[in-house]
From TrEMBL:
PROSITE patterns: ABC_TRANSPORTER_1, ABC_TRANSPORTER_2. Signal peptide: none annotated. The keyword Cytoplasm does not apply. It holds the Pfam family ABC_tran. This is Thiamine transport system ATP-binding protein. It comes from Cellulomonas iranensis. Keywords: ATP-binding, Nucleotide-binding, Transport. Residues 319-338 are annotated as: Disordered. GO terms for molecular function: ATP binding. InterPro entries: AAA+_ATPase (IPR003593), ABC_SmlMolc_Importer (IPR050093), ABC_transporter-like_ATP-bd (IPR003439), ABC_transporter-like_CS (IPR017871), P-loop_NTPase (IPR027417). The keyword Disulfide bond does not apply. Gene3D superfamilies: P-loop containing nucleotide triphosphate hydrolases. SMART domains: AAA. SUPFAM superfamilies: P-loop containing nucleoside triphosphate hydrolases (SSF52540).
Amino acid sequence: MSDGLQVADVVVRYPGAERAAVDGVDLAVPTGEVVALLGPSGCGKSSLLRAVAGLEPLAGGDVAWDGVPVAGVPVHRRGFGLLFQDGQLFAHRDVAGNVAYGLPAGVRRDRAARTARVAELLDLVGLPGTQRRDVATLSGGERQRVALARALAPRPRLLLLDEPLSALDRGLRERLALDLRDVLVATATTALFVTHDQDEAFAVADRVAVMDAGRLLQVASPADLWARPASRRVAEFLGYEAFVPVPVPAAGDAVPPAVAALVGAARSAGVALLPAGGVLALAAGAFVVVPGGEGAERGGADHAAGAAVDGPGSVGTVPGAASGSAVGGPASDDRHHAGAAVDGRVEVVRSRRGRTEVVVEVAGVGRVSALAPAGWTCAAGERVALRVDAAAVAGLPG
Ligand SMILES: Nc1ncnc2c1ncn2[C@@H]1O[C@H](COP(=O)(O)OP(=O)(O)OP(=O)(O)O)[C@@H](O)[C@H]1O
């Protein structure tokens, strides 16, 4: 028998709606695991969460805990905790009163036990000593911490969180996402966490379930999802910004140097093998600016010579290309050389967290965001040398 939450072929349909909001979803969340439901607005994340909670009726499928269906069990009897975007604190109770509200009746009635447990929960969420604070005086982040303490108070067997951080500003959200993960891990809480923010999903969850148009597209650990998105749709949603077909092998076909460099670097770095007809997905940072243009000079030879496909799913340089900048061949395991063959035209220069990031137009690839070393900058219109960072490149099926 499986432990934890099992969602089997669940369908949620709203009256009058043309299509189901949740359309046959299967998902398991074993005890102790934190799973993020990630997807664009309207894809059905909240509907699925609410169906698990018992707040929406199932139009099909089953929800079970430890193998026992919970469909007939009322919301408050499921042993599931809920936390929403607005923690919905009780304005007429202080912090301790809000947290204590979540405690089981036995603990709530025992004054010493209640005091101790409230203090323990407030320590856990990083708000020690705030018991007597009026909740109206708390910041948005503090309010959500209190709401989290209240939700954890009854030790729910499953905590359902619906965009709990989305009302907060970005910096705070990032910090709270990490704190939230720490709290869930420290309390061994099984959790299903809805978000539309990739970074948040990756920061909080053990596994991420990517959802689109009522269906699950892929469920994997953050690292696996990032390295091996199952489809272009998933990759787009994770933030991959350019897609380049892997050249189909045909002796003598010219391959743009940037594409040759990408394929070479990806192969060298062990990116999942690229079948002929597959696609390379590039995230911001797949190209990195090489200051001083030393890469462009070396790349000049490649540029002039062009490159050619040399085997199934692989790319190499044509005979005559400078060997120091050969790309993609079995003998070339050098990312720097691979990338040094490439240059691009800067279209936009912007600053991100004090570092320069440029949008470059790269022949054969298109517009991509390239990262620059600290302290470096340039102007729109300049050509810059680029190298490939295979950590921001993934292979997709064609
Ligand atoms: N109570 C409702 N009645 C009718 N349609 C609804 C209801 N709630 C949601 N929907 C519709 O169901 C679909 C899925 O909505 P849902 O809120 O589950 O998506 P979501 O992924 O959580 O979106 P968001 O991130 O914007 O909250 C949408 O098309 C939405 O308009």
